[in-house]
Amino acid sequence: GAARSYAAVDLGATSGRVVVGRVGRGELTLTEVNRFANVPVRLPSGLHWNLPGLFTGILDGLREAARTAPAVTSVGVDTWAVDYGLLDADGALLGIPYHYRDARTATVAPQVRDKAGAQELYTVNGLQHLPFNTVFQLAAARDTAQLAAAEKLLLIPDLLTHWLTGSVGAEVTNASTTGLLDARTGEWSRDLAARIGLDPALLPPLRHPGESAGELLPHIVAATGLAAGTPVVTVASHDTASAVAAVPLTAPGGAYISCGTWSLAGLELPGPVLTEASRAANFTNERGVDGTFRYLRNIMGMWLLEECRRVWAARGEPSELASLLADAARAEPFAAVIDPDAPEFLAPADMPAAIAETCVRTGQRAPASRGALVRCVLESLALAHRRVLRRAAALAGRDITRIHLVGGGSRNDLLCRFTADATGLPVIAGPTEATALGNILVQARADGLVGDLAEMRQLVADTQELRHFEPSGDLRAWDAADARVVTAP
Ligand code: LFR
Questions:
Q1: Under a CB-based contact definition with an 8 Å cutoff, are residues 385 and 407 in contact?
Q2: What is the pTM (predicted TM-score) of this model?
């Protein structure tokens, strides 16, 4: 049959985009119709997302999408995980959703963990401990007027879908990042909710990728020019789940790193790993499409570099990526290495200073130039990729023979090369827009245009540009550097 079009709304921590995907037999092409900055806003209450501003960018994008041919068949929404908005009894949003980097959970998270029991939590929800998991954000909100007035909790993509369609639901891949979903049953754990004093009635019915999430509301149709009755299809609304769905894992032995603001490094598994060793290593069991599990760890990712560039730009210093990477390529190897996951890198005001302080505190010299600092970040990320993937393989009892690096970070040759060299494994880089592709492909599948997950991935492998990085073969320098990393507890 003829090719069909779908619109993907994909919001990341630093930018949002609306992408139109054309899918046909042996055809999969993306056109970005709008990209807009995602700039968080600091208010007296803390750090928040500018959600109405983002919604405007979405509508602008959908208006562009409505002008493309063939006409858009459906729309799907994915964003980052864990964050949420609360609706009151009238369906109005209560307050402005918090950004997961807001500091209010820092003291609450360990308290909840100690009270509920880290092991007990993990055997139920299988989730890595991150201070901003929804369950900890809700514990921090416990005595607030907003939570008292709340009728429903909607995760960010579900909230945007609600604004587009009026429907209320909780998409399951993203629900698995809240800490309130039972990893074994895939249902909300009312027991966990009760344990943190949360009314389980706040949690909407679950919905699964491929199901309908309603039709565009009349005023959205009028504002965008999309056809009346255009459905919003439930996609893997956690961006990482969409990205993993589009990783061209066409043979056994493949691991993935979804590399953007975060590096999410791990394996796709048929079931969760809920062992004590897995908990101690802080691995997560997040849900993927078709009942798969994303067994992975968050690594702080390109956030370190993005934040350095933001600080340099604000000071009027050079911050252009290509020339920073060229400087990094010429800088001295392994001059300093850090653990990118140290808590001091989660939300520092001045990332270059935070990195320099950590180097000094761990008995190394502070990087002497911007190029040296970028090299330190990229080598340290490659070492973190290596530690996490080796650990994942050991904990899941799998062999890794190659690494798929997808997302914006796959454009970074130096990071791809370092990751291949550090692990001693070939790295297949791309697709860069894995998240948007995964979003589009789940819609195309709901539309009957592609088959199962394997077929979706084969289409990605056949149509998208992938680049291969062979490891240098000499691991000694990387072994020595890894031994110098002082890892955060
Ligand atoms: C990546 C991501 C990660 C999640 C983090 C916070 O964009 O969704 O998977 O841990 O953002 O939500």
A1: no
A2: 0.98
Which ligand 1 atom is at minimum distance from the Cα of 240? 9
What is the pLDDT, as a whole number, of residue 307? 98
- The tokens describing 186, both together, are 């895939």
What's the gap in Å between 13 CA and the centre of ligand 1? Answer: 8
Work out the number of other CB atoms within 10 angstroms of the CB of residue 107: 10
End-to-end CA distance of the chain: 55
- State the closest ligand 1 atom to the C-alpha of 264, by its place in the atom list counted from 1: 9
pLDDT tens for 137-169 read 999 999 999 999 999 999 999 999 999 999 999
Compute, in angstroms, the gap from residue 240 CA to the centroid of ligand 1. 7
Span 238-250, pLDDT tens digits: 999 999 999 999 9
Tokens 């609360």 sit on residue = 86
Q: Is the pLDDT of residue 196 over 90?
A: no
Tokens of 141: 């909100």
User: Residue 195 has what pLDDT?
Assistant: 86
Mean pLDDT, range 216-242, rounded to an integer: 98
Determine if the peptide bond prior to 204 is cis (ω within 30°): no
**What are the residues facing 290 on neighbouring strands?**
none
Report the nearest-CA residue for atom 12 of ligand 1. 81
Question: How many whole angstroms from 174 Cα to the centroid of ligand 1?
Answer: 10
296 within ligand 1 shell (Cβ under 6 A)? no
User: Where residue 488 falls among pLDDT bands split at 50, 70, 90?
Assistant: confident
Please indicate whether residue 298, judged by its CB atom, sits closer than 6 Å to ligand 1.
Answer: yes
Q: Which residues, including other chains, have CB under 8 Å from residue 165's CB and lie 6 or more apart?
A: 213, 214, 215, 216, 217, 220, 232
| Mean of pLDDT values over 117-139 | 96
**Is the CB of 239 inside a 6 Å radius of any atom of ligand 1?**
yes
Q: Distance from the CA of 68 to the center of ligand 1, in angstroms?
A: 31
- Mean local confidence (pLDDT), 242-260: 97
Residues with a known catalytic role: 239
Count of C-beta atoms within a 10 Å radius of residue 212: 14
Tell me which residue has its CA closest to atom 6 in ligand 1: 81
Closest listed residue to residue 241, CA positions, set 447, 76, 78 = 78
- 303 pLDDT band, cuts 50/70/90, is very high
Q: Does residue 262 have its Cβ closer than 6 Å to ligand 1?
A: yes
Ligand 1 near 80 CB (within 6 A): yes
